[in-house]
Amino acid sequence: MTLDARIPSGPIQEAWDKACFDMKLVNPSNKRKHNIIVVGSGLAGGSAAASLGELGYNVKCFCFQDTPRRAHSIAAQGGINAAKNYANDSDSIFRLFYDTIKGGDFRAREGNVYRLAQNSNKIIDQCIAQGVPFAREYSGSLSNRTFGGAQVSRTFYARGQTGQQLLLGAYQALERQIHAGSVTMIPRTEMQDLIVVDGQARGIVARNLLTGEFSVHIADAVILASGGYANVYYLTTNAKGSNATAIWRAYKRGALFANPCFTQIHPTCIPVSGEYQSKLTLMSESLRNDGRIWVPKKKGDKRPPNEIPEDERDYYLERRYPSFGNLVPRDVASRNAKALCDEGYGVGKSGLGVYLDFSESIARLGEKTIRERYGNLFDMYQRITDENPYKVPMRIYPAIHYVMGGLWVDYQLQSTIPGLFVLGEANFSDHGANRLGASALMQGLSDGYFIIPNTVGNYLATNKFPKVDESNPAVQEALTSVKTKIEKLLSIKGKRTVDSFHRELGKILWDYCGMARTAQGLELAIGKIRALREEYWRNVTVAGSSNDLNESLEKASRVADYFELAELLCIDARDRNESCGGHFREEYQTADGEAQRDDEHYSYVAAWGYKGPDAAPELTKEPLEFHYVHPSQRSYK
Amino acid sequence: MCRFATQNRVEELENGSSHTLRSTFPDTTTGEQLMATAQVMPHQTDPVTFWQSSNGKKVVMAVTGAMMFAFICGHMLGNLQMYEAPEHINAYGHFLHNLGELLWIERGVFLLAIALHILAAVQLALRSQVARPIGYSRSQMINSTYASRTMYWSGPIVLAFIIFHLLQFTAGYIHPHAQFVAGDVYNNVVSGFQVWWVSAWYIFAICLLGLHLSHGLWSMFQSVGLAHPRLSPLLRKAAVAIATLIVLGYISIPISVLLGFIK
Amino acid sequence: MKLTLKIWRQKSSNEKGAFVSYPMDNVDPEMSMLECLDVLNETLILSGEIPVAFEHDCREGICGSCGFVINGVAHGPERGTTACQLTMRHFKDGDEVTIEPWRAEAFPLIKDLVVNRRALDHIIEAGGYISVSTGQAPGGNDILVGKESAEESMDAAACIGCGACVAACPNASAALFTGAKITHLGTLPQGEPERERRALSMVAQMNAEAFGNCTSIGECTGACPKEIPLDVIANMNRDYICASFKRREELPTPVAPAVQRA
Fold first, then answer.
1. Which of C90, C110, C130 is the last residue in one of the domains?
2. CA C191 to chain CA mean position, Å
3. Are residues C126 and C53 in the same domain?
4. Is residue C250 one of the residues assigned to a domain?
5. Residue C203: is its pLDDT beyond 80?
6. Residue A159 banded pLDDT, cuts 50, 70, 90
7. Which of A126, B109, B198, C53 could disulfide-link C111, Cβ–Cβ 3.0 to 4.6 Å?
8. Domain coverage including residue C31
């Protein structure tokens, strides 16, 4: 199988315009005859559903939460990048493009990333028009700040709640379309399977989480915007409900899964406090703008931080990366923190933490300024830890936060199944092996507001859609398979809870496929995952029944998918014999411990295809070509 | 009553009814209604809609409340003439009684205000009661005043008092242990308040009125949409201060009578 | 730490509910309220019982999913904190903690602590937006927004839609929720053209739903995890009054409420 990314030829600056011009259009009066399903209501799904509704398509939007406004995009804190160059600091579309390609360690597609940088400016305009209260200067103009991994000030923000505000913008646009009748919102309903008829994605099977009823929804195109699969690690910064079921079922129906091993660890999370811990709390990495990260110079130094004199502190990021200092990209910051903790320099009760110290900026800028910038984050930290970060340095530790991998899509955001489009974190497209801060919001909205409304139209205008109804064998097959799975889970009645399995699975992944990986460890992990999966299908216990609200069952179904996904993740990590971005293989590092890429052999997108329940997945490579940014060793020194 | 826009909705899902959402999309040939923007209803007279909304009723309560507050202030100033020679207040009473039609217009306006205030309050109270059919087993208030939570109690008690008060001092129907003399305001007051329970009832009711005012005086601004980040907190304090002054002004009279300062 | 959780259990809206007490022996003070329920649920599942249903998602106080009344206070005793971020150190050894769902006619109970909050979506649907379609936006800095306006708008925009205001209000009123959105959008120049129409539509929908009315008690703002000020309600009233006294060709029709008023 060869993968055609359908990137337009010609200069990259004109590629998207050219692509748009080449697209076939759907006659306005015919738009309402086309039914489109959107799964997910976050930044990508919400914006897509709203924009498609505005165009006049007949849209059904699904979310598993009680309302579309709860999607996990809401938790993004720091901001959203745009190449507006309002700060007059030599920013440009090209520089945002360049930074994103480089930040992604040269594992992203140039064409997609350039388009993302182009759209970034339109996103800001759109969101402001919707009423997103971005931070302003006294003059009334937009305020910007710097953000991890960038040397220009291009991040737009709304306090520490940027994701919330952008999502509310999309949610409100969506509600407007719901009111207009062009979008039908179906909350508390989870996609269980994809319906593929004659090679085309033609609908989904969904389960109502309140009644347990299965329903079939037929459409001309299916858009997945169901977010990332980070929760496979159990302890992550993702919402508890975030799951991989939608994309995993699509994978099993034939969509290729790209770069599953590219996972991102966020450096500034609140450390774990106990066994019962259900999730990790992230604090915006904007904190690194004014906070300085350090550990004691002496191993196992248990003195309170304020009693450790200045010359006994190791500001290791500033020491090792003088030009970027505390603002090095996430993967670098995370890896350094882990390495030091592993060596015994860690702080806090568990020894898994480093200090993030604001005393210097408070002395320089005053507590008021710091409060203005990070007040809500400081409050949150204090609520959780009972420590006052204005007085005592914060303790932080890295945590799984985001996945760059996802379903493979071409330039039109279409997966390998015609009619199945994938947006936002659910696809693999724009961040390569590592995502820069404040870029996820940008990608979700670029996909939803500005790309999919064009590309879906092209697909609808160039394809035929024979009538499909519920009696179609493909529909019946999908319906039966999901029903069987649910019944099976309920019938096992074993001795272990779903969470205990999930926690153990997460621990395996974190230990062997977390921040640092080895071929040997991954091999071990694959074995352990298989054994655990086998036990799961034998020994899990699910409470309750399938005909009312049953979270235990919802989780059981999701975790069943995680086992399979975890295995693919490890296989991909084992297969990629290089270190790049978030994927760090200990065997491949430079003399001073930096990631060592292998462009000669691994400059490709690894797209995996499902071959059956016990068969090894098949790897298809999409070679990456770099015409504008020449791959170089990333250096933040 | 309201009519509602008819749309393709999925509320049934959440309300647990047996409606199954197993359909594919609505038939595109009848998809017209999906595209139509929200239906509009024929132009209604605005005052009706306004009154029907809970916000509108609150505005009515605020305005009528403000009118009654003005009356309460005027009435108190009149009452304070008790501290002067009897002729003063008797002359004042005489003056008021001889206003003729004006008096009846004034009475009519206030009766209407009171009626509207009560009507809106009753309707809103019923609405609120329906809004929480099942209460909490444990309920702890963390951010409200006693006054604000007891408006529905203080109001009716004050109303009962007003009726009693009118029967006693205006009509003279109830005047225990003494003879009501039409026109002799001063002595009616003194003889009325010399009965300890009349005074006690009066003081109790006025305190409730004060409580009612301490919230109402501030809340009325909120209801008519006047709020200011810095002035609103001041206003809350001012409401309490004014209510206290009013209470003191009123109850000083029965106390003075009981203590023998006014004879 | 030992605690007794007294939790409202109700299988569905059609069945009767009751409190059930669950003694907990090993409560870590660092745990969040929801983690405490997780631990309880794990033991319930292992003993073959039905776990307590409660809503949760982000567990960092922003998605608005979680929320129940803890010891008589919506989201529990700590101000400006959602149930998911409430740590158990706020309770004392031996305490009995009463947990019950949001109680309001407009929020019908689904199961245990889970209620249906679609009525809040309806209020937004009625007009809680700026009617701009994708692609119609002017440049970001074309319309300047004063810093104070942006901040005031942001204060109101912080609402997470959890419904604690309704739960805490003795009248079960949604005025704070509605006022917050009206203030968020109305304070910005972008929201100005639709300001009055928005107030009319949203207030009409709010009144069509089974919410009570505002009597300025202030419990809502005390329970609000984002501490949205009571001023937003005055803003709503002002916009609504101004809008009501203008001649209008048409009035927006509310959609059918989540719960039909009795």
1. C110
2. 23
3. no
4. no
5. yes
6. confident
7. C53
8. 3-110
Q: Which chains border A (3 or more CB–CB pairs < 8 Å)?
A: B, C
pLDDT at C249: 66
Instruction: For residues C169 and C201, state if they share a domain.
Output: yes
C4 shares contact with chain B (CB less than 8 Å): no
Task: Examine residue C257 and state whether it is found in any structural domain, yes or no.
Answer: no
C33 and C97, same domain (yes or no): yes
Is the pLDDT reported for residue A403 higher than 60? yes
Residue C240, domain member (yes or no): yes
Unique residue bearing structure tokens 């029944």: A545
Tell me how far apart the alpha carbons of residues A451 and C32 are, in angstroms, rounded to a whole number: 41
Tokens at residue A202, please? 């033609």
At residue A634, the pLDDT reads: 74
For the segment A94-127, what is each residue's pLDDT rounded down to a tens digit?
A: 999 999 999 999 999 999 999 999 999 999 999 9
- Give chain C positions within 8 Å (CB) of A444: none
| Interval A305-316: pLDDT, tens | 999 999 999 999
- Could you say which of C81, C110, C139 is where a domain stops? C110
- Counting as contact any 3 or more CB pairs under 8 A, the partners of C are A, B
Contact: B24, A66; criterion CB under 8 Å: no
**Shared-domain flag, residues C30 and C133:** no
Q: Is B17 on the interface with A (CB under 8 A)?
A: no
Picking from C69, C208, C235, the nearest residue to B225 by CB comes out as: C235
Q: How far is C178 from chain B (nearest CA, A)?
A: 12
* Domains observed in chain A: 265-401 (3.90.700.10), 473-614 (1.20.58.100)
Cβ(C205)–Cβ(C126) below 8 Å: yes
Q: What 3-state DSSP class applies to C89?
A: helix
CA-based nearest distance C172→chain B, Å: 6
Nearest by CB to residue C153, choosing from A71, A133, A544, is: A133
Q: Are residues C188 and C212 in the same domain?
A: yes
Residue A631 has pLDDT above 90, yes or no: yes
For the residues A3-32, what does the mean pLDDT come to?
Answer: 95
| pLDDT tens-digit series, residues C216-241 | 999 999 999 999 999 999 999 999 99
In this structure, of B24-38, B127-141, B205-219, the range with the lowest mean pLDDT score is: B24-38
**pLDDT given for residue B4 in this prediction:** 53
- DSSP per residue, A97-160: HHHHHHHTTT-S-HHHHHHHHHHHHHHHHHHHHTT----B-TTSSBPEE--TT-SS--EE-STT
Region B4-17: mean pLDDT is 44
Measure the CA–CA gap between A307 and A587, rounded to whole angstroms. Answer: 39
Number of inter-chain CB pairs under 8 A, A vs C: 221
Q: Looking at the complex, does the CB of residue B36 fall below 8 Å from at least one CB of chain A?
A: yes
Order of all β-strands in the sheet with A406-407: A406-407, A257-258, A604-609, A618-623
- A550 → chain C, closest CA residue: C53
Query: Per-residue pLDDT tens for A459-499?
Result: 999 999 999 999 999 999 999 999 999 999 999 999 999 99
Q: Which of residues 210-229 of B touch C (CB under 8 A)?
A: 215, 218-219, 221-229
- Asked if B9 and C255 come within 8 Å (Cβ–Cβ), the reply is yes
State the residue for tokens 């991954």. A522
Q: What percent of chain A has pLDDT over 90?
A: 88
Looking at the domain assignment, is residue C261 inside a domain? Answer: no
List the single best residue of B45, B142, B145, B220 to mutate versus C (max C Cβ within 10 A).
Answer: B142
Nearest-10 crossing angle of helices C231-244, C175-186: 70
- Res C259: pLDDT: 83
The answer to whether residues C143 and C38 belong to one domain is: no
* Tokens (6 digits) for A101: 């390609």
Query: Hey, is C130 helix, strand or coil?
Result: coil
Q: Is there a contact between A254 and A573 (Cβ–Cβ < 8 Å)?
A: no
Q: Does residue C188 sit in the same domain as residue C78?
A: no
Assign A283 a pLDDT band (cuts: 50, 70, 90): confident
Q: What is the CATH number of the domain that holds C151?
A: 1.10.1060.10
Confidence of residue B14 (pLDDT cuts 50, 70, 90): very low
Overall number of domains in chain C: 2
